[in-house]
Amino acid sequence: YLAFLDADDSWYPNMLETEVMALEENPKSGLVYSDIDIIDENGNLIEQSYLSKRAKRKKPIKTFLGYHGTPYPSASLKRRIVFEKAGAFDTSFYQGGEDVLLWAKMYRLAEFLWIPKVLAQRRIHNRQVSHMHQRRLEADCKLYNKLWELFSDVPEEQAQLLVNYARLWSKEGQRLVRQGRRCEGRRLFLRSLQYYPFYWRNYIRIAKSYLHI
């Protein structure tokens, strides 16, 4: 088994025991993952059961890119043999996304098991790589392109990925509008609609981009 603990994060005392037992009892599962709490730089609790709350806000689609989102690295345990068959981490990534791509490759080899318990804490602060906006945007685009190739034979996954593309460009358009770059923002809203025309927030955001609010 392999478990990764990011430098900013922490495990609750029963994390390893619980997830090892889960894999022992479910031999078909290649990876097990739990929910997480969000804490700040000083260890203060910001949000409990983050993954469960995020799943409730989304339409439950039973695909890798759908229901619970993807496993958080510090809250997961995986079988080494499945990890190696999947090719380990893609080292061309640095600004995020390498874990999601690996999980996707593992997902095609073995079942994933969700434990509805909070077994780890994710620490967030302003110095994290994930807060470097432009590089993060580029990493997300690169990740989605690689996932599109990986799931070229799975229409359900590609359909969900189109929604992810749409959300990505819509959020970026919203950011530009807030900066006063309204024309650029509207172009990204239209780009978002090309991926998924039923993303209704786009129409609201386009309308608001013409208002001086």
List keywords for this structure.
six-stranded mixed beta sheet
Explain the overall architecture.
This protein is of the alpha+beta class. Helices cover 46% and strands 16% of the residues. The chain has helices at residues 15-25, 50-56, 80-85, 98-107, 133-150, 155-178, 182-195, 201-208; strands at residues 2-3, 10-11, 29-39, 45-47, 76-78, 111-123. Strands 1, 2, 3, 4, 5 and 6 form a six-stranded mixed beta sheet that branches. Strand 3 and strand 4 form a beta hairpin. Helix 4 (98-107) packs parallel to helix 5 and helix 5 (133-150) runs antiparallel to helix 6 (155-178). The radius of gyration is 18 Å and the shape is globular. The model has no long low-confidence stretch (mean pLDDT 89).
Summing up helix and strand content along with how strands pair, one would put the structural category as alpha+beta
What is the 3D shape?
globular
Give the strand content: 15-25%
Radius of gyration: 18 Å
Helical fraction equals: 40-55%
Gap between N and C termini, in Å? Answer: 53 Å
Give the low-confidence spans: none
